Amino acid sequence: MRHARLTVDLDSLAANYRTFRARAPDGAAAVVKADAYGLGMNPVAARLASEGCSRFFVATEAEGLALRETLAADCDIFVFSGEVSAAGLFPVANQPSQLRAGPVALHVDTGMQRLGFAPEDVPDHAEVVLLLTHLACADTPDDPLNALQLERFEAVAARFPGVPVSIANSAGILNGVRGIGRPGIGLYGGNPYSGRDNPMRCVATLEGQILQVRHVPAGESVGYGASRVVTRDTTLAVVGAGYADGVPRLLSNRGEVALRGVRLPILGRVSMDLTQVDATEVAIEPGDWVEFFGPTVGVDEVAAWSETIAYEVLTGIGRRVERRYPATAVGV
User: Fold this and answer.
1) Is the pLDDT at 160 greater than 90, yes or no?
2) CA 299 from chain center: how many Å?
């Protein structure tokens, strides 16, 4: 029996995809690398394909081959690393050694200083089916680097008339950047922006099951290192999920969970398999499920407590966590 579960709302995923598709001038692809940001690549991609998505991006050839088994042959799969030897996948070429006979996508590095050709080094001889770049600061629309990157990219794109382009991530699409959108975090319910309200629907809910209820007298300590001493008689819920399941350890003594919409503070250190919660103010019993993130406690809120980003929280969900995909209404 598993005591941690991730529920993936595929209807909300589809709704988020439709939002991006409506805002992207040339339609929207989907970034499903890292097991669809931890939510399950195959069920996520299958649902997006049913919504009309026909372009998918993964990080590695192995991811692409696994995805190829799920998708129809008319769906295009692009591999960001550019290292592709198998048929049925498009390499995103980042350097001359990755160019090959046949169609490729070309990645232009316009300011990230990661993978990609420098603008002056982009080759003219390849059979280019897609020209792309990646914005470093799309989540902060007023950052001047956005305009500089677009200027650099458009100078390259002018050399490839008629070739589709892809520039915008989740925030970039909402900012109105042209081309085929490549939403990632926004598909999965994370906030595409820094310092703005989240416009996306919640997709992922991580929960842990209460294994034991303890009554702790005032003055007793909780957890490893005795890092928290309760100042009142406390009802403590011991939850069967810890950092091995993707509960960030930095939530120790600072984060919250939710039970039936009521927020409850985490007491003591998050351990590998267990987390203790102050449940003094609510009625609880073993077998109840508490929300670590979801509709009450947002994933970006958890990320802020954990001094990281929602991407890391989602991709950090442990392999032993049960993934659940409730029955959905395709096309709703």
Assistant:
1) yes
2) 10
Write out the catalytic residue numbers: 33, 224
Q: What distance in Å separates the CA atoms of residue 46 and residue 297, rounded to the nearest whole number?
A: 28
DSSP of 49-61: HHTT--EEEESSH
Report d(CA 218, CA 298) in Å as an integer.
31
Question: What is the DSSP secondary structure assignment for residue 129, as one 8-state letter?
Answer: E
As its CATH architecture, domain 204-324 has Beta Barrel (2.40)
What are the structural domain ranges in the chain? 10-188, 204-324
DSSP characters for 180-215?
A: SB---GGGGT--SSSSS---SPP-EEEEEEEEEEEE
Calculate the dihedral angle through the C-alpha atoms of 159, 120, 56, 179, rounding to the nearest 10 degrees: -50
Q: Give domain 10-188's CATH architecture.
A: Alpha-Beta Barrel (3.20)
Shortest CA distance to 138 belongs to which of 90, 197, 183, 82? 183
pTM for this entry: 0.95
pLDDT per residue over 96-115, tens digit each? 999 988 999 999 999 999 99
